[in-house]
Amino acid sequence: MVAILRNNGTMENQNYIFEIFCIDVNGQTEIKSETNLIQALCFTTKLWSSEVKDTSSNGRWTINDEKSKISVRIKSVDTTKVLTGYFEVAFNIKVESTDFEALESFRLKLLRHIKGKLSFSHIRVLSDDISTAIAQELYPQINKVESLLRRYLAKFFIQRVGLDWWETTAPKSMIDKVKIRKSDRKDEFSTLCETDVSLADFDDLGELIYKQSSGLNTPEKVTEKIAKISSLEELENFKTELKGNYTKYFKEFFRDKEFEQKWKELFKIRNKVAHHGVFYKNELDRGLELASSLSAIILDAENNIDEMTFSVEEKEAIRNATIEAIESVEVIQNQVEEDTENTNSVVGLKILGKIELPNSSSYKGYYKAITEEELLNELHLCEDARNYVGLKWFVTQYLAEKEFSIGLSYSLINILADKNKIELYDIQEGYVIKAIRLKK
Q1: What's the CA gap between 148 and 294, in Å, rounded?
Q2: Of 112, 137, 152, whose CA–CA distance to 303 is shortest?
Q3: What is the pLDDT of residues 167-193, one digit of tens each?
Q4: Which of 97, 189, 215, 313 could form a disulfide with 70 if both were Cys (CB 3.0 to 4.6 A apart)?
C-alpha cells in the first residue's frame, strides 16, 4: 500500500491494516475464547476514543470505534494441528482504519494491553501498513540525499584533488569493499563508468565527509600532531595548517552545521527502512526533517566548491598523501608477487591473484613520483633544446618516458607555479597551446 503525504505533512487517509497473532504459551492468560477477548478489549477505556460496539457475523467478532474509524476483528486460531512447541490458546487480531494517525497510535496501546494486562506471552506482527507507509514515504527522500552526497563527493574531489582522489582519500577498508562489489557487478553500466563512490555504503559516504571535517578540529587530532613537532619550522607549518582553506571549508559547510550527527541519525532510520523495521509517526517527521536539512547542507557546499582554493602547503600535503597511497599499493603488490613465487609449488594452495592496482588514466602504468629538483632540471634541459616546452608534451611524453607518474607531475607543476618557480603561458600555433617555462 502506497501512502500519499498531504501538503500539510499528514498521511492521506486510506484503508490501513495492522494484524497480529497473540499466543498464550505458558497458560498464563485467563482469556480462553473469542468472547473473553472481545469483552477484555471492550471494557478498557484506554484503547478507545468513543463507546465501542461488538458484533458477531459469520463466526467472527468485530469491535467498532466510530470516532477513530477503527475496526477490530478477532478470530480464534486452530491449534490442533501444531506439531511442535504446542500452545492451546491463540487469536488472530486484525485492525483496520482509514485514519492513519488513529491507527498509528492504537497499535502500541493494543500491544501493551494484550501483553501487559491480558498476559499473552507471544505476540507476532503479521501486517503493519503504518510502518510500510512511513518507510515508502521516507525512502525516496533518503535516496535523494544519498545521491546528492555521492554527486558532491565526486564533483569536489575530482575538481579539487584529481582523478586519484579515491585512492588518496578513502580508507583502505572502504576501497577493498568497493573492489569486491565492483567485481560482482556484471552490468554494462558498471563497465562503462567509474563506480567507486557509487558502490560505497551509506555510512561510508558520511565517513568521507567526517574524515575531512574532523581534520585538526578535534582535541585528539591536535594533540597527536603537536606530539610530533620537533622544530620551529614544523610549528609554523602546523599553525598554517590549522588555518588552512581545506580545513576551514569543511568546518564551515559541514562540521559547524552538525552534518555528522544528522547523517548518523538518518543512517539509523535508513537501516529500519531497509530491514522492514517498525515505524512511528515521529520517525517519519524526523526522517523528512533530516533529509531536508542534509540536502540543504550538501547543496550549499556544492555551490561553493569553486570558491575553495588550496594553499601551497595544502597542495603539497595532498600530493604527499597520493605518493604514500601509491607506495603502499606497490609494497602490497611486490609482497603478493613474492608470496606467489614462493608458494606456487605448494600442492593444493589456491592462488587468488595479484592485488588490483589503481586503474586511473593519470598513472599510465608509471608510479614513480618526480621531485621538485628533478622536475626543474628536466624542464631546464627541455628549454635549452626547444623553442618552447608544451605542458602536455612535457608531462605525458617526456616525463612519462622516464617513468614518472603523470598525475603527480601535473600536481607538482601546479605547486611550483604557486611558488613562483615556473610559469604557464599560451603559445599561438593556429590554436592555443599551454606551455611551461622556468620563472626568470
Answers
A1: 9
A2: 152
A3: 777 878 888 888 888 888 777 777 788
A4: 97
